[in-house]
Structures are given as structure tokens and as C-alpha cells.
Design a protein that fits this description.
Blueprint (H helix, E strand, L loop, with lengths): L20 E2 L10 E2 L1 H6 L1 H8 L5 E4 L4 E3 L2 H7 L5 E2 L4 H5 L6 H8 L6 H12 L4 H5 L2 H15 L4 E3 H6 L1 H10 L7 H12 L11 H24 L5 H12 L4 H15 L1 H16 L4 H7 L4 H11 L5 E6 L3 E3 L2 E3 L4 E5 H4 L35 H18 L4 E2 L6 E2 L6 E2 L3 E3 L2
Parallel strand pairs: 2-3, 4-10
Antiparallel strand pairs: 1-9, 3-4, 5-7, 6-14, 7-10, 8-9, 11-14, 12-13
Bound molecules: protoporphyrin IX containing FE.
The site of protoporphyrin IX containing FE has 26 residues, from helix 10, helix 14, helix 15, strand 7 and helix 19.
Length: 424
């Protein structure tokens, strides 16, 4: 494996973030600095090889990737860290415009009281109990999408199926007319690119345009519900925002944009990954799921562990963080690697085995923890369960076409290539 080299001084890289250092006399070898190319080429292998020796590695842009489960879990809500606010986008040269407006107004990138007042009007609506009420609708949607394709003998799993389930469900939660769903879906996927590590300066104009379009669209919806309240999520949200009178108009819009952002790309990728992993297994797992529907929930949880759709959780070190004799310097961006920690043998027996009988806790670590724990966990799990159930119920002989499952990315939201699936 090629490393970029190491450093033991508290110097700064070209983005202004501190570079790695170790406690004097404790460890002679500093954690390596790795290029994006090395990390993207074979992330699981890199993490497996380096995790026993180093609690973290540094990326060439200055971010520290924390690798071990026993560090990742507590650091999500440790007082030595806080949520990243605008630091990462500033480091990429963005100081104003739509991306800055989104990031500086979203609950996803805020802390303390600001975060609480932005999250509070959303939390009640996304409670597990409330989401269970949507299960029947998600089921009908998944079944209808499968039925639509049944006669074709094949489909694009990502674009024809997995993408539609979260997008149409959020559109329904927001009360968006069915005829606007394609427009809404395309805006959502264009905006959500900002949460991946793969966007470049060339992508920026389109992302900015999409943020403007989506926020204007949401602003119109909010306005409509204010004038004509209905018995729906958005009317409750608007009433709660207006009653608390603690959010600006832009903030009220950006929390809804954040929900769209958090809930589309993540779940689309997670559905494709789950189905791809199950079909890749030659041990009759797919057929077993058909006969034992109780295994569906376990398949969802194990696929989220084995190949998480969200590979890391971002934080900023507000003081020096010492881990196993190495120090992450204060002011550094920290990426708590779910991808590495969910395969840490200190916590998961035979972590490289895809095993549906593995004991799973009530709270899956892929959804984070503490104050920022995923608001859409219940919804995501329902969408994945119903997406899988509709497929195993109707397509017992489903198989992957010529291209195998291909997942890209070592941090942030991972990208998944199109996966064509076939049946007779
Ligand atoms: C498999 C699918 C999903 C995964 C793996 C996932 C993962 C996560 C993670 C790790 C966080 C915490 C980020 C942090 O601490 O910095 C988060 C936050 C969030 N997620 Fe999800 N998510 C998924 C689906 C969804 C869905 C379906 C929605 C909404 C419909 C959603 C909405 C949100 C929101 C609004 C936040 C921000 C919470 C806050 O900052 O207080 N997510 N998600």
C-alpha cells in the first residue's frame, strides 16, 4: 500500500488544517497520510490492514479517519468533538452562494442551541411510531414498482426501483403532487451530491442551481401550507415553526431541504447494496428470505453493517484527542469511520462474514448517535424492509446481470453504480 508519508510537527496543510503528530516517546511510527486514490481503491483492505496498528489515519486533505469501533462510537457525542459547521466547505474555497446558505442554515451542520431549535420541529414527526404508520404506503409503492416491471424480465435496480422508493415516500410526506415527483426527485439527487466526497468544482454550478430550485420549491410548499393548512406533516411543521418563532424563513426552508438531502441518496444506495449483497451469495439466501420473511429485518441490518451506505460521520476536534498514543490535533476535521468500525473484530465476530444470524443491537451504529442521530432511521429501515420484501415475494429467481455490485467511496455517503437485475 502506498502512503503519502508522515509528519510529527503541528504544522498545517494547504487547506489550513493541522497535520498528524504523535505523543513524544509513545509511538515511533506516525499514522500514515493516505491519498484519496489509495483510500478509494480498496477501503476495506486499507482499514483492515491499518486498524490494528493505528487508531486513525490522516487523509491528504487533512481529515483524520478514526478506525476503531471503541473510539468511533463514543467520539460521535464526545465533548472533545463537535459537528462540523462550515469548515469543510470553506476549506474547499466556498464562502458564499447557495451551498453556504444551505450548510450554514441546516441542522445537519450546526451545534448546541441552534441545532436543537432546528431539529425540534422535525423530531416529533419522524418518531418510530409515526413512521410505522407509513409502512403500508411504502409497501404498496414497492409492490407497484415491481408489478410495473414484471413483464420486462429485467430492470435497472438503482434508477428504476431503489431511487423511487425514498424519493416518492418523502414527496408523499411533504404532500408533493404526484405529477411533480420526477422534478422533485431529480432536484433531490442533484443536491445530495454535496454530501458525498466525490463532487468537484465542475459539479458546483449544477449543485448550486439544484439547491436554489429545491429551496424555492420548498418555500412555495411552506407558503401554501401556511395559507391552507392540511392534516399532514408539512402543515404540522409550519405550525410548530411559527409557534416557536425561533427560525428565520431561510432556516425553515433549509430544514426541509436537509431532510430531503439526508433521506434520498443514502437510502437509494442502501437498497441497491442490500439487494446486490444478497444476490451475490450463492447459498440460497434469496430463496430463504422468501420462505422466512422474519429474516428480512436481519438482512437490512447486516447489509448496513457489511457495506454501509454512509461510510463516516463528520466532526471537528475542539481539543487535542489522544488515541492509543497518537494525537488528533485541535481544529482538525475528523471522520468517524462507520465503514471501518462496523468491521472491527474487537466488536464483531468474523466481521468479514455476511451473516444474517449475527446478533444486532436495537440501535444500528450506521445511523450515528447523540444529538445528531439520524432522524430518518425508522423510515430508512421501513423503506429497505419493504423494498426487499416486494422483490423476494415476486421475483424468486432474481439474479444480477453482467455488471456486479460496485460501491464507490471510503467516507461520507457512498455512491453505487447501476445494477441491472434479471428474472424469467
Ligand atoms: C440507510 C439510510 C440512512 C443512513 C445510513 C443515514 C445515516 C445518518 C447518519 C450517520 C446521520 C448522523 C450524521 C451526524 O451525526 O453528523 C444522519 C443524520 C440525519 N439523517 Fe440520516 N441516514 C439514512 C436515511 C435517512 C432518511 C430516510 C432520512 C429522512 C427522511 C434521514 C434524515 C437525516 C437527517 C435530517 C439527519 C440530521 C440529523 C441532525 O443533524 O440532527 N436519513 N443520517
Amino acid at each position: 500500500m502506498k502512503h503519502c508519508g508522515g509528519s510529527r510537527t503541528r504544522s498545517r496543510n494547504k487547506r489550513g488544517f493541522p497535520v498528524t503528530m504523535s505523543l513524544p516517546g509513545r509511538n515511533t511510527v506516525s499514522p500514515p497520510i493516505l491519498s484519496f486514490a489509495t483510500l478509494n481503491a480498496a477501503p476495506h483492505e486499507v482499514y483492515r490492514e491499518l486498524r490494528p496498528e493505528f487508531p486513525f489515519v490522516q487523509r491528504e486533505d487533512g481529515a483524520f479517519l478514526v478506525l476503531r469501533a471503541h473510539d468511533v462510537q463514543p467520539l460521535v457525542s464526545d465533548p472533545r468533538t463537535r459537528q462540523i459547521e462550515t469548515e469543510l466547505i470553506r476549506a474547499r474555497g466556498i464562502t458564499d452562494g447557495p451551498v453556504m446558505e444551505l450548510v450554514s442554515n441546516s441542522l445537519l451542520f450546526s451545534n448546541g442551541e441552534t441545532h436543537r431549535r432546528r431539529r425540534q420541529p422535525l423530531s416529533r414527526c419522524f418518531a418510530f411510531r409515526m413512521m410505522e404508520g407509513l409502512r403500508a404506503n411504502v409497501r404498496s409503492l414497492a409492490e407497484a414498482l415491481v408489478t410495473l416491471k414484471l413483464g420486462d424480465g429485467e430492470m435497472k435496480l438503482r434508477d428504476d426501483y431503489a431511487a423511487s422508493i425514498p424519493a416518492i415516500t418523502i414527496a408523499a410526506i411533504l404532500g408533493i403532487p404526484r405529477s411533480d415527483v420526477p422534478l422533485f426527485t431529480s432536484m433531490a439527487y442533484r443536491v445530495s451530491k454535496i454530501l458525498t466526497t466525490s463532487w468537484t468544482r465542475e459539479d458546483l454550478p449544477d449543485i448550486e442551481l439544484a439547491i436554489n430550485d429545491l429551496s424555492s420549491y420548498v418555500a412555495t410548499l411552506i407558503d401554501d401550507r401556511r395559507k391552507h393548512p392540511r392534516a399532514d406533516f408539512l402543515s404540522d411543521y409550519v405550525a410548530s415553526v411559527d409557534e416557536a418563532a425561533q427560525m428565520s424563513a431561510v432556516e425553515a426552508v433549509m430544514q426541509i431541504v436537509s431532510v430531503v438531502l439526508g433521506g434520498t441518496d443514502t437510502t437509494r444506495a442502501a437498497i441497491v447494496i442490500m439487494v446486490g449483497l444478497l444476490l451475490d451469495r450463492r447459498d440460497g439466501l434469496w430463496q430463504a428470505l422468501h420462505h422466512q420473511p422474519a429474516m428480512v429485518a436481519a438482512a437490512v441490518l447486516e447489509s448496513l453493517r457489511f457495506e454501509p451506505a454512509v461510510a463516516s460521520i463528520p466532526r471537528l476536534a475542539v481539543e487535542d484527542i489522544s488515541l492509543d498514543g497518537h494525537v488528533i490535533p485541535r481544529g482538525s476535521p475528523v471522520l468517524l469511520s462507520t465503514m471501518s468500525s462496523l468491521r472491527d473484530p474487537d466488536v464483531f465476530l468474523d466481521p468479514g462474514q455476511f451473516n444474517l444470524t449475527r446478533p444486532q443491537g436495537k440501535w444500528h451504529p450506521v445511523f450515528g448517535g447523540g444529538e445528531h442521530r439520524c432522524l430518518g432511521e425508522a423510515l430508512a429501515r421501513i423503506e429497505m424492509e419493504e423494498a426487499l420484501t416486494a422483490l423476494v415475494n415476486s421475483l424468486l429467481d432474481l439474479e444480477v446481470g453482467d455488471q456486479k455490485l460496485n460501491i464507490r467511496g471510503h467516507a461520507g455517503i457512498r455512491q453505487v453504480d447501476e445494477l441491472v437485475v434479471r428474472w424469467r
